[in-house]
Amino acid sequence: MGELAVDWEHFTPWESLMGGVLIGLGASVLLLFSGRIAGISGIIGGLLPPRRGDLGWRTAFVAGLVFSALAADLSGYSPDPRFSSQNLFLVLLAGLTVGLGSRLGSGCTSGHGVCGLARCSIRSVVATACFIGAGMAIVFLLNPIGRGG
């Protein structure tokens, strides 16, 4: 059996920690001040069809997601080049597939993994276990241990 290869160049514990803190803080602020759950698929799904009184905060939330990515790009932040978005068709297909999966699963990773687990939701525990298990299976299939990455 081969050695487990660690990609130290792309190991970013502090950036990952700060990202998690910001996601948790954002979800907490939304819940505390509006009583809403920060599940992205539910927020976007609630835009179509728009409901009176619900459109403003949902639009602001989605705009914040889009503009924060734009601000990061303009500030010189460069994402990992292995995850390039040069193939627009694949990016759109991946987004559509994730959206469909989140609707079928009654929520997305942010809704179940961040908000649902914090509320001790059994449904969210099961959903998050499925997300993590599926992710581990894909990593194992695409990059088996010992192949050297």
Description:
With 149 residues, the protein is mainly alpha-helical. The chain has one domain. Helices cover 64% and strands 0% of the residues. The protein contains six helices and no strands. The longest helix has 22 residues, at 13-34. The radius of gyration is 18 Å and the shape is globular. It starts with 12 loop residues before the first helix and ends in a 7-residue tail after the last helix. The mean pLDDT is 82.
Domain count, please report it.
1
Q: What's the story with the biggest beta sheet?
A: none
Low-confidence residue ranges = none
User: Helix/strand-derived class?
Assistant: mainly alpha
Question: Percent of residues in beta strands?
Answer: under 5%
Task: State the order of secondary-structure elements, H for helix, E for strand.
Answer: HHHHHH
Give a short synopsis of this structure:
This protein is mainly alpha-helical and 149 residues long.
Properties at a glance:
single chain, 149 residues, mainly alpha, 64% helix, 0% strand, globular
Annotate the secondary structure layout:
Elements: H1 13-34, H2 40-45, H3 55-74, H4 88-104, H5 109-118, H6 122-142
Helix pairs in contact: 5-6
